[in-house]
Design a protein that fits this description.
This protein is an all-alpha fold. It folds into two domains: 248 residues, MFS general substrate transporter like domains (Growth Hormone, Chain: A), CATH 1.20.1250; 245 residues, MFS general substrate transporter like domains (Growth Hormone, Chain: A, Up-down Bundle). Helix content is 67%, strand content 0%. The chain has 20 helices and no strands.
Length: 548
C-alpha cells in the first residue's frame, strides 16, 4: 500500500500505530508473535483473579454499613465497608464488556491492526486499574465499577481478540496451536497476577491500611510495560504469505469444511453456521464456568471430613477441621486452573490433527459422560476419580475457548476472523450469566428443601449433561458455509484495501527463512513471558500439594 497523498501533493507517512507500519519484511521470525500475544493475555487474564481483592476491600474501613441502608446510598457511602456482593459486580462487568467491546470493535481492529488495538487495550486495562485505585483511595465503589469493570472490560475485549487474526495468518499450518498458545495466557493470567497481588498487598499493608490501592497502581505500571511491549512487537504477514515449504492441503471431494475463501463479518453473523457455533461455545462455557466458580465449596460439601480422614459430614466439622478442608479445596481449585490452562494449548493443538468439529464432539461426549459419572463418584467417596473427572472437564472448558478461533477461520476464512471471533464472544458474556446462575441458584434451592450438602449438586450436574448433549447436536448440525455468503474477488480486494493489507510485491518473497539473527530475540521474548508464567505455575503447585 503506497503512502497516501493529500490534496497538497505531499506524501504522508502512515502513523506509528497504523497497520501499514507493521507489515513484516522478509526474514521476520513468526515465532516472535506468540510471546507478544502472551504478554497481553497474561496481563488481562488477571480479571479471573480479582477475587483476591474482595476480602481486604470488604474490611477496608472496619465499619459495617447501617442495617437498612439502601443500595444507592451504599454505592456513594465512604464511611462504611463494601459488601462482597457489591464488589462482585466488577467481575460481572468484566465479561459483559469483554463480549460487547469485542463484538462492537472487532471490525475496527481488522482495519486498524493489532498494534493499535493492543495499545488501546493497554491504556484501557491499566487506566481502569488506576481509576479503581482512586476509587479505593476515596472509598467510592462506583469508580471501581467504571474503572476496572467498564473501561477495563473494554480493554479486556480488545486485548483478547487483538492477536487472533494475526496468529492464524502467521500459522496457517498450525491454526489451533497458535491461538492455543495465546489464549492459554488468558487462563494463566490469574495464576501469575493473584499471587503477585497478594504479595503486594502484604507489602503495603499497615494498621488501618489494606494496601489495595497501592497494589492497583503498581500492577497498572507493570502491566502497561508488558502490554505495550507485546503490542509493539506485533507484525502482520503480507497478503499471500505462507510458511516456507508449506503446501496448503488439497481439498478432497465432499470435504469443504476448511475454506480458502472469506466471509465478511457483516454477513458471517447472519449465517446458520455462526448461530450454531455461538450455541456450541455458549453451552460448553456455561457448563464449565458454573462449576469453576463453585469448585471450592463443591469439593468441601460433597466429601466433608473424608478429605481429612474422618467420617464426619461437612456440617459436623469443627472450625479447625473446616480450615483444613478449605486448604485442600484451595489446592483443588489450583489444580483445576492448571488443567484449564494446559487444556487450552493441548486441545487447540490436537484440533490441528483431528479437526475442529471432531474436537468439539470430544468435548461434548466426554464432558457429558464425566458430568453424569461425578455424582456417583461423590457418593462412592472416591476423591481421586472425582478430582480427575473435574480436571478433564476443566481442560475441555479451556480448550473450547482456544479451539473456537480456528473453527471460525476454517468456516469463514481468515480475512476477518478476528472481527467474527469478537462477535462470537457475546456467547461468553451470555454463558457468564447462565452458568453461575444455574449452578448457584439450583444449589440454594436444593439446600432450602432440605437436600444434604453431599447431594446438593447431583441434579445440577445432570442438567449440565443436558446442556452438553444439546451442544453435541448443535455441533453436528454445522455444515460448510454456502457459496452465497463468501466475498467476491472485488469485495475481497476492497476489504483488503480498507484493512491496509499489502502483498509482498513478488511471489518469490512470499516465503522466507527466519533470519538467523532473530533467534536470540525470540528466546528473550519467550523468557520474558515464560518466567512469570513458570513462577505462577510453581506457586499454584505449592497450593496443589496440599490436596495430596
Amino acid at each position: 500500500m503506497s503512502a497516501s497523498v493529500p490534496s497538497g501533493g505531499h506524501a504522508t507517512q502512515p502513523s506509528f500505530l497504523s497497520k501499514e507500519r507493521i507489515i513484516a519484511r522478509p526474514g521476520f521470525n513468526r515465532w516472535l508473535v506468540p510471546p507478544a500475544a502472551l504478554a497481553i493475555h497474561l496481563c488481562i487474564g488477571m480479571a479471573y483473579g480479582f477475587s483476591v481483592f474482595w476480602l481486604p476491600l470488604s474490611k477496608a474501613v472496619g465499619t459495617a454499613c447501617p442495617v437498612g441502608m439502601d443500595f444507592i446510598s451504599q454505592v456513594f457511602a465512604s464511611t462504611c465497608d463494601w459488601q462482597i456482593s457489591m464488589l462482585g459486580w466488577v467481575y460481572t462487568l468484566f465479561f459483559i464488556f469483554l463480549g460487547c467491546s469485542a463484538a462492537i470493535w472487532g471490525g475496527w481492529l481488522e482495519h486498524a491492526g493489532p498494534r493499535k488495538a493492543g495499545v488501546v487495550s493497554a491504556a484501557c486495562w491499566c487506566g481502569g486499574l488506576l481509576i479503581s485505585a482512586l476509587g479505593v483511595y476515596t472509598h467510592q465503589i462506583w469508580l471501581m465499577w467504571v474503572g476496572s469493570g467498564v473501561i477495563g472490560g473494554i480493554g479486556l475485549g480488545l486485548g483478547y481478540i487483538s492477536p487472533v487474526s494475526t496468529l492464524i495468518k502467521w500459522f496457517p499450518d498450525r491454526r489451533g496451536m497458535a491461538t492455543g498458545m495465546a489464549i492459554m495466557g488468558f487462563g494463566g493470567g490469574a495464576m501469575v497476577g493473584a499471587p503477585l497481588a497478594t504479595a503486594l498487598m502484604s507489602h503495603f499493608a499497615a494498621p488501618g491500611i489494606v494496601g489495595v490501592w497501592q497494589t492497583f497502581v503498581v500492577m497498572a505500571v507493570i502491566y502497561f510495560v508488558f502490554m505495550l511491549g507485546g503490542a509493539l512487537t506485533y507484525r502482520v504477514p503480507p497478503t499471500g504469505w505462507k510458511p516456507e515449504g508449506w503446501v496448503p492441503p488439497v481439498k478432497k471431494a465432499g470435504n469443504t469444511m476448511i475454506t480458502d475463501r472469506h466471509v465478511h463479518v457483516s454477513v458471517a453473523w447472519k449465517t446458520p453456521q455462526f448461530a450454531l457455533v455461538w450455541l456450541v461455545l455458549c453451552l460448553n462455557v456455561s457448563a464449565g464456568i458454573g462449576i469453576l466458580g463453585m469448585a471450592s465449596p463443591l469439593l468441601q460439601e460433597v466429601f466433608g471430613g473424608q478429605l481429612i480422614g474422618t467420617t464426619l459430614s461437612f456440617k459436623e466439622l469443627s472450625a479447625d477441621q473446616l480450615k483444613q478442608v478449605a486448604a485442600i479445596a484451595a489446592g483443588f481449585t489450583g489444580l483445576l486452573s492448571l488443567f484449564n490452562i494446559g487444556g487450552r494449548f493441548f486441545w487447540a493443538s490436537f484440533s490441528d490433527y483431528i479437526g475442529r468439529k471432531y474436537t468439539y464432539f470430544v468435548f461434548f461426549a466426554l464432558g457429558a459422560a464425566l458430568y453424569g459419572l461425578v455424582p456417583n463418584l461423590g457418593h462412592l467417596g472416591n476423591v481421586a476419580l472425582f478430582v480427575a473427572a473435574f480436571c478433564i472437564i476443566l481442560s475441555m472448558y479451556g480448550g473450547g475457548f482456544a479451539t473456537v478461533p480456528a473453527y471460525l477461520a476454517d468456516l469463514f476464512g481468515t480475512q476477518m476472523v478476528g472481527a467474527i471471533h469478537g462477535r462470537l464472544l457475546t456467547a461468553w458474556a451470555a454463558a457468564g450469566v447462565l452458568g453461575p446462575v444455574l449452578v448457584n441458584y439450583l444449589r440454594e434451592y436444593q439446600l432450602s428443601i432440605g437436600v444434604p450438602p453431599s447431594a446438593v449438586y447431583d441434579k445440577t450436574l445432570y442438567i449440565l449433561v443436558g446442556l452438553l448433549v444439546l451442544g453435541f447436536i448443535c455441533n453436528a448440525l454445522v455444515r460448510p458455509v454456502a457459496d452465497k455468503y463468501f466475498m467476491s474477488d472485488e469485495q475481497l480486494a476492497a476489504e483488503r484495501a480498507l484493512s491496509h493489507d499489502k502483498a509482498a510485491g513478488s511471489a518469490n518473497v512470499l516465503e522466507w527463512h527466519a533470519a538467523s539473527g532473530t533467534w536470540p530475540v525470540v528466546i528473550l521474548a519467550w523468557l520474558a513471558v515464560g518466567i512469570p508464567l513458570a513462577w505462577g505455575v510453581i506457586v499454584t503447585l505449592q497450593k496443589v500439594a496440599v490436596l495430596f
